[in-house]
Amino acid sequence: MVRAGRWESAKTQLSAEANRGVKFSRRDAESLALVSLKYEIEHAHIDRSQSLDDTNFIQSLRGCIGSAEPSLRRLGETQNEIGAEALLVLAEAGLLNERGAKKYLSSSDAVWRSVGATAAAELKPEERQKLYLDPEERVRRAAIQSIQADPPQEDLLPLFEVARRDPSPLIRSQAFRALA
After folding, report:
1. What is the dihedral of CA 135, 137, 143, 144, to 10 degrees?
2. What is the DSSP letter of 72?
3. Apex CA 167: angle with CA 165 and CA 171, to 5°?
4. Tens digits of per-residue pLDDT, 94-107?
């Protein structure tokens, strides 16, 4: 049913077929949903007044990463906050290589630094541990999440301190889970 690769064409086609009483199969619905999703991702960064909504939308895509991956990668090339959110979603899903993420570690923007922090497991201990103390919660969260499954031995004491002293209950909880 949805042959068009553009949302407006798909929407027009859907309306016309619905008006004619055409029943839609599950495959038709999936096709339309995918076209709609791609459209929404690719246009997330266009309207600045929608920035928070766009950020929340991009973050919500964690559950459908497979369908959204190509569009998220393209959005990540935009070098704005929404693009950083797209790369962060990919990194958290293990779909952004560490080398690609590490280049953002020196960014002054916390969203981009959090993308870089997803590569913390590949850093030298002192660089990684510095991320655990970053002023921005999202950077600390990304760094701890990146090593949570297999924390390096030299990070156990710093993680214990994070678990005891971090102002964020979420970060403290992550640090305790990394230690467990």
Report:
1. 120
2. H
3. 85
4. 888 877 788 899 99
Supply the DSSP symbol for 132.
T
Instruction: Look at residue 4 in the predicted model and tell me its pLDDT.
Output: 35
Q: Please name the helix (run of DSSP H) or strand (run of DSSP E) that holds residue 156, with its range, or none.
A: helix 156-165
Pick the closest to residue 104 from 132, 126, 76 (CA basis). Answer: 76
What are the tokens at 68?
A: 């959204």
CB atoms within 10 A of CB 19: 8
Q: Beta-carbon neighbour count of residue 169 at 10 Å?
A: 8
* pLDDT(164) > 90: yes
Q: Is pLDDT larger for residue 84 or for residue 49?
A: 84
Residues counted in the chain: 180
User: Are 93 and 65 contacting, i.e. CB atoms less than 8 angstroms apart?
Assistant: yes
CA distances from 10 to 6, 90, 148 (A): 6, 27, 43
> d(Cα 124, Cα 144) in Å, to the nearest integer?
14
The two three-digit tokens of residue 102, written as one number: 């590490």
